[in-house]
Each structure stands twice: as structure tokens, then as C-alpha cells.
Amino acid sequence: MVILKAKAFHTEASIKPTPSAREYLHSFYQGNRLLYAAVMLLEVSSNFLLILLSVTLGALMDIAVGGSMPEFYKSCGIIAVFLILNFTLDALSGRLRCRFLERAMRQYKEKVFEKLMQKKHCRFF
């Protein structure tokens, strides 16, 4: 059995450690944590609202089978309120998510270009 070892085309001295990913991750969230927390809170509340909506829809089905009309109308009103709240939360969450991502990507891009400009020009040729 023959085992071949591949030789590296570079020497160990030419390899320099790259900056850690933690530094770039920090630039992504720097000054952006409040928006991130707001987006996550809105997403969790929207999902909780959808769970309540499914429970209310189940109750609506039970009322439709053997309940009275006033109970049915009351459940329809509750469902309408849930839908309006969910639409509002989703719209607000979407706007905040876009603002968070725009700011995070801008800060990340600035960090990457800052690190790129620190390199010597001869490394690009």
C-alpha cells in the first residue's frame, strides 16, 4: 500500500492568522442590540398571538357546531382583533428588521473595508 503525502505550496512563515470572527460579529451588533431585541420581542409576541388565534379558531368551530349566535359573533370579533394585532406586529417587525439588517450590514462592510485597507498594497498584486 502506497501512501502519498501532499506537499503544501506555501511555507508556514507565509501564513498569518486571520482576525477572529468574533471581531466581525461584534461589528455586526455594535450599537444595534436594542433593535435586535425589539425585533425578537415582536417576533415572539406575534407567534404567541398566532397560537392564541388557533385556540380561538378551535373555540369558534365548537361554537359553530352547537353554540349560539351571540357567542359566534363575539368569537368572530376576537378573531378580527387578533388578526389586526398580528398584522400590526408583523408590519412593525418587518420595518425594524430591515432597519436592523441595514445598519448591521453597513457596520460589517465598514469593518471589512477597514481591515482590507490595513493590508499592504503589494499583497494585492
List keywords for this structure.
mainly alpha, 74% helix, 125 residues, rod-shaped
Offer a quick outline of the entry:
The protein is built from 3 helices and no strands. By secondary structure, it is mainly alpha-helical.
Q: Layout of helices and strands, plus pairs?
A:
Layout: H1 21-29, H2 33-66, H3 69-118
Helix pairs in contact: 1-3, 2-3
Would you mind describing this structure in some detail?
By secondary structure, this protein is mainly α. The chain contains 3 helices and no strands. Helix 1 packs across helix 3 and helix 2 runs antiparallel to helix 3. The two termini are 43 Å apart. The model has no long low-confidence stretch (mean pLDDT 80).
